[in-house]
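Hi all, posting the design record for the shared folder.

TITLE: backbone redesign
STEP: 1 of 1
STRUCTURE INPUT:
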Protein backbone atom coordinates (compact mmCIF):
# COMPACT_ATOMS: atom_id res chain seq x y z
CA UNK A 1 0.00 0.00 0.00
CA UNK A 2 1.31 3.42 -0.95
CA UNK A 3 1.76 6.03 1.75
CA UNK A 4 0.38 9.57 1.61
CA UNK A 5 2.90 12.38 1.31
CA UNK A 6 2.19 16.12 1.26
CA UNK A 7 4.64 18.22 -0.75
CA UNK A 8 5.75 21.59 0.54
CA UNK A 9 6.64 24.55 -1.66
CA UNK A 10 10.33 23.69 -1.96
CA UNK A 11 9.64 20.09 -3.02
CA UNK A 12 7.33 21.33 -5.78
CA UNK A 13 9.77 24.04 -6.88
CA UNK A 14 12.68 21.62 -7.14
CA UNK A 15 10.53 19.25 -9.21
CA UNK A 16 9.20 21.95 -11.55
CA UNK A 17 12.47 23.86 -11.92
CA UNK A 18 14.78 20.83 -11.90
CA UNK A 19 17.52 23.19 -10.69
CA UNK A 20 18.96 20.64 -8.26
CA UNK A 21 19.09 17.20 -9.86
CA UNK A 22 19.25 15.27 -6.55
CA UNK A 23 16.29 17.13 -5.08
CA UNK A 24 14.30 16.85 -8.31
CA UNK A 25 15.00 13.10 -8.37
CA UNK A 26 13.80 12.75 -4.76
CA UNK A 27 10.58 14.61 -5.60
CA UNK A 28 10.07 12.40 -8.65
CA UNK A 29 10.63 9.28 -6.54
CA UNK A 30 7.86 10.42 -4.19
CA UNK A 31 5.56 11.02 -7.15
CA UNK A 32 6.30 7.57 -8.56
CA UNK A 33 6.09 5.65 -5.26
CA UNK A 34 3.62 7.46 -3.03
CA UNK A 35 0.24 9.13 -3.14
CA UNK A 36 1.39 12.75 -3.27
CA UNK A 37 -1.06 15.38 -2.07
CA UNK A 38 -0.75 19.15 -2.49
CA UNK A 39 -2.78 21.93 -0.94
CA UNK A 40 -4.13 25.03 -2.59
CA UNK A 41 -2.20 27.17 -0.10
CA UNK A 42 1.13 25.60 -1.08
CA UNK A 43 0.37 25.99 -4.78
CA UNK A 44 -0.38 29.69 -4.16
CA UNK A 45 3.08 30.06 -2.61
CA UNK A 46 4.65 28.21 -5.56
CA UNK A 47 2.98 30.70 -7.95
CA UNK A 48 4.24 33.61 -5.86
CA UNK A 49 7.83 32.28 -5.82
CA UNK A 50 7.91 31.37 -9.52
CA UNK A 51 6.69 34.85 -10.43
CA UNK A 52 8.47 36.96 -7.82
CA UNK A 53 11.79 35.15 -7.41
CA UNK A 54 12.26 33.31 -10.71
CA UNK A 55 10.53 35.97 -12.88
CA UNK A 56 8.62 33.25 -14.74
CA UNK A 57 5.75 34.58 -16.86
CA UNK A 58 2.14 33.78 -16.00
CA UNK A 59 1.47 31.41 -18.90
CA UNK A 60 4.58 29.35 -18.17
CA UNK A 61 3.69 29.20 -14.45
CA UNK A 62 0.18 28.02 -15.27
CA UNK A 63 1.48 25.41 -17.70
CA UNK A 64 4.12 24.04 -15.31
CA UNK A 65 1.75 23.77 -12.36
CA UNK A 66 -1.04 22.28 -14.49
CA UNK A 67 1.35 19.56 -15.68
CA UNK A 68 2.43 18.95 -12.07
CA UNK A 69 -1.21 18.72 -10.90
CA UNK A 70 -1.70 15.89 -13.38
CA UNK A 71 0.74 13.81 -11.32
CA UNK A 72 -0.56 14.46 -7.81
CA UNK A 73 -3.78 14.67 -5.83
CA UNK A 74 -5.38 17.88 -4.66
CA UNK A 75 -8.75 18.35 -3.03
CA UNK A 76 -9.44 21.50 -5.03
CA UNK A 77 -7.88 20.46 -8.36
CA UNK A 78 -10.73 21.82 -10.51
CA UNK A 79 -10.62 25.16 -8.69
CA UNK A 80 -6.83 25.32 -9.02
CA UNK A 81 -6.85 24.52 -12.71
CA UNK A 82 -9.50 27.18 -13.39
CA UNK A 83 -7.53 29.68 -11.26
CA UNK A 84 -4.30 28.90 -13.13
CA UNK A 85 -6.04 29.52 -16.45
CA UNK A 86 -7.40 32.83 -15.16
CA UNK A 87 -3.95 33.74 -13.83
CA UNK A 88 -2.40 33.09 -17.25
CA UNK A 89 -4.98 35.26 -18.99
CA UNK A 90 -5.65 38.14 -16.58
CA UNK A 91 -3.58 40.58 -14.53
CA UNK A 92 -5.10 39.62 -11.17
CA UNK A 93 -3.10 38.30 -8.24
CA UNK A 94 -3.25 34.51 -7.99
CA UNK A 95 -5.37 34.58 -4.81
CA UNK A 96 -7.95 36.71 -6.64
CA UNK A 97 -7.90 34.13 -9.44
CA UNK A 98 -8.60 31.44 -6.84
CA UNK A 99 -11.58 33.43 -5.56
CA UNK A 100 -12.80 33.86 -9.13
CA UNK A 101 -12.45 30.10 -9.64
CA UNK A 102 -14.45 29.34 -6.48
CA UNK A 103 -17.20 31.57 -7.86
CA UNK A 104 -17.25 29.91 -11.27
CA UNK A 105 -16.60 26.28 -10.25
CA UNK A 106 -18.35 26.05 -6.88
CA UNK A 107 -20.88 28.88 -7.45
CA UNK A 108 -19.79 30.60 -4.23
CA UNK A 109 -20.55 34.31 -4.00
CA UNK A 110 -17.42 36.43 -3.54
CA UNK A 111 -17.70 39.62 -1.49
CA UNK A 112 -15.00 42.07 -2.51
CA UNK A 113 -14.22 45.73 -3.10
CA UNK A 114 -11.48 44.84 -5.62
CA UNK A 115 -12.54 46.51 -8.88
CA UNK A 116 -10.55 44.20 -11.18
CA UNK A 117 -11.96 41.12 -9.47
CA UNK A 118 -15.50 42.56 -9.56
CA UNK A 119 -15.19 43.15 -13.33
CA UNK A 120 -14.06 39.55 -13.88
CA UNK A 121 -16.81 38.15 -11.64
CA UNK A 122 -19.41 40.11 -13.63
CA UNK A 123 -18.51 38.18 -16.83
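Okay, here is what came back for every position:
SEQUENCE:
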Amino acid sequence: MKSMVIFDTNMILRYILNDDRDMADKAEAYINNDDVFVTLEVIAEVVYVLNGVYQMNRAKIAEAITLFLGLVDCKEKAVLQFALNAYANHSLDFVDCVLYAYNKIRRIEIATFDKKLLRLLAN
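COMMENT: DSSP finds seven helices and two strands in the chain.
Let me know if anyone wants the other runs.
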